[in-house]
Amino acid sequence: MAFLINQPSLSRLPKFPLAATSFTTLLQTSEFRLRLLSAIESAASRIYISALYLEHDEAGQEVLDALYQAKARQPQLDVRVMVDWHRAQRGRIGESQDSCNAAWYREQAQRHSVELPLYGVPVQTRELFGVLHLKGFVIDDTVFYSGASLNNVYLHKLDKYRFDRYHLIHNKQLADAMAGFMTELFFNNPAVFRLDKPAPATRSIRKEIRDLRDKLLHSHYRVADIARQDELAITPIVGIGKGNPLNRSILSVIDSTRNRLFICTPYFNFPRAVVLAINRALRRGVEIDIVVGDKTANDFYIPPSEPFRVIGALPYLYEMNLRRFAKRQRQYVARRQLRVHLWKHEDNTYHLKGIWSDERYILLTGNNLNPRAFRLDLENALLIHDPKAELCKQSQAEQDSILIHTQALTHYRELEDVKRYPEQIKKLLTRLSRVRIDRMLNLML
Fold first, then answer.
1. Residue 133 is a catalytic residue
2. Is 170 a catalytic residue?
């Protein structure tokens, strides 16, 4: 059976021992923000932050102010922030480039007497073909791990939140490995420039960007294999490009599952390899829960009452994918072996990703489990090996909190058909499908 074939590949992964008391699951978005700010304030040696973006809004200002204040209090404190190069130098979709985050970083740097390096990391020469999706904040010897970026909705600063997963892992070896990876790969790389200072144009560093990507293809965390097979342990994994170690580990986790699989993804667009692994699991009798955001809980969703923009078609495209998947697997849905849950809570949005396999493996990741994550972006994950189910209660509490605002599908027809979509969305998706551009979009988005 598949799990007998793939199980050894997971057991052979190098891993650090992890005490159950050193692993904390937070269930509230706002609590993650408060714990993060508190840790920044009390940091004694280092603060390394890697995020897709640090946004110019109230929450972003709060975090950046906390970082500057921590550095001013303790000049010897090693504070560094990494964000995606391309995302930082454009405005939000539909906004002027003048409002980009990089301009804000430079303005903030001029207002402070201490230096706080904010690095822009270009994973590709164009944002469309790959971004920095490396997650994790290292504060002293604790890793704050979440798929969240840093802005109002991700940190629930104002009235709305974007739901994610939030974990704190106090483990010096893990923190050293993640901080060491950032130092070795990025801080002195010719393709990486500080955005709190004037930076060159992307076109002038294309060769350096390609060299960095080539280097990333062969990169990995430095992990000493010092954990026993029978103890709670954790493995940091990084990957970029097709067939990378993280992709293989994700597939191995699914293929190793004997009884129950719980998967979260914000944008329903599984790579073919993941679909095949799920199909294999269903055939061998595994019970599977998949939690995905309702299309109205997607961060790209635009209500029909607002002006039409092409980007607003994405949530409908993901729903079309989900409907096709549920239709193909309707026999498993009917007998409740496959349970698809749609998340929706008022006007909030959904951004969860990750996997639980039986009570043995927990995958914490920013990987969206879509073709883009599997081929283009720089992704990472923390794989927890839990042979004695020591984190079972925390996992169950987290799953329960996720399912509170969900509704389970009983039939694929409960999802809207394209014929019932708003007229402009329907016309666009019909036109795209006729020329098969929707397939290309599924690979890129």
1. yes
2. no
